Amino acid sequence: EQLFRGDQVLRITASNEEQITLLRVLGEQAELQIDFWRDLTGPGHPADLWVPFPSLQAVKIFLEFHSISYSVMIEDVQALLDEEKKNMTRSRRIQR
Amino acid sequence: SISTFDFASYHTLEEIYDWMDMLVDDHPNLVSKIQIGQSYENRPLYVLKFSTGGSNRPAIWLDTGIHSREWITQATGVWTANKIVKEYGQDPSVTAILDSMDIFFEIITNPDGFVFTHSSNRLWRKTRSINAGSSCVGVDPNRNWDAGFGGSGSSSDPCSETYRGPYAHSESEVKAIVDFIRSHGNVKSVISIHSYSQMLLFPYGYKRTPAAHHQELNELAKKAVSDLAAMYGTKYAYGSVADTIYLADGTTVDWAYDNGVKYSFTFELRDTGRYGFLLPSTQIIPTATETWPALLDIMVHVLEHPY
């Protein structure tokens, strides 16, 4: 089972077309293994970017260097998955 | 049993397939189950057929969960299928639709991916087909349709989340729907449901040229998102795929529209703004509930505007 310990989802809001272009370039860097969960649609619209833990520093430095505003939407993807799994198990136990 | 099934929880493939059997058993005169093909890993591709009789009636196609990680979508599919059954004979709109049309509903459109999200990688989006010459697995089944296939709005890299596949309809999950809709020949609407961006979109995605019925589709989308918002205030964007998000090649709705299905839409269901694909199960019922009036708007419009 693949684990996602420390992976984060960042909510990014590009303020202009130039930042959108930069984010698209970022998304094309295969070695970062990032994934746009909610895609870029235009300036002012939020995009959600899943970032594996090993790429976090590089991505955050990139965003800050280019003054692209972001917030952490999911602090630890694995923690949420663990919670979801627990809920499913509990729900099945209740049914029985 | 059918009465104790918990619609407010996420379920495995087996649980959902079992539930479908129970729904059919409980409503044999309204619901039947059709197998339209097999997935790459040989799982059956099931479609629920809601019909009150007649042969080759005009039909509405619904599918949920072509991107396996979008769990709120499959869960909304289960709730919606149940709602259709419950409302037939009660709600005048549902009754009118099913008295003259059939509804085909594929709740788990990408079963291999769905099972993989439960067993190995909760965030898996694509199919599970092996890609020759690459260690990366899977094709994005919403870039695999023969509508602008291969353009820049998809990826040729098997490791990408939007990998289009080696050729159009290479994925058995896609080919099964294509064959079914073509052989049916009387499908009037295709509604493909995804999550999560809160949008209601229509053709085109592979080009910026407006669809021939752009104005009608746009007005219908406007009404649908307005009725959706009336429930909990969830705001949806609407418009063509290319105008609203970006150029996307090889998508379900574009293929449907280019193959004569005028009322082709794709939903992106809600997020609370925090969890993305990991929406807590407490969101299932609110999401499904608010989506229902919008779905009904489209289906009623299809009924009232035969072509």
Describe the structure in your own words.
The complex is a heterodimer of chains A (96) and B (307). Chain A is of the alpha+beta class. In chain A, 42% of the residues lie in helices and 23% in strands. Chain A has helices at residues 17-27, 56-65, 77-95; strands spanning 8-13, 35-38, 46-51, 69-74. In chain A, strands 2-3-1-4 form a 4-stranded antiparallel β-sheet, with helices on one face. In chain A, a hairpin with a 7-residue loop joins strand 2 and strand 3 (46-51). Chain B has 307 residues and is an alpha/beta fold. The longest helix of chain B is centred in the C-terminal third of the chain and has 21 residues, at 284-304. Chain B has helices spanning 13-26, 71-87, 92-100, 111-119, 172-184, 214-232, 241-244, 252-258, 284-304, and strands spanning 31-38, 44-50, 59-64, 102-106, 187-195, 199-202, 237-240, 263-269. The N and C termini of chain B lie far apart (41 Å). The model of chain B has no long low-confidence stretch (mean pLDDT 96). Chain A binds chain B through residues 1-2, 4, 9, 30, 35, 37-41, 48, 50, 73-74, 77, 80-81, 84, 87-88, 91-92, 94-95, and chain B through 4, 6, 9-10, 119-123, 157, 159, 161, 196-197, 237, 244-246, 271, 274-278, 280-281.
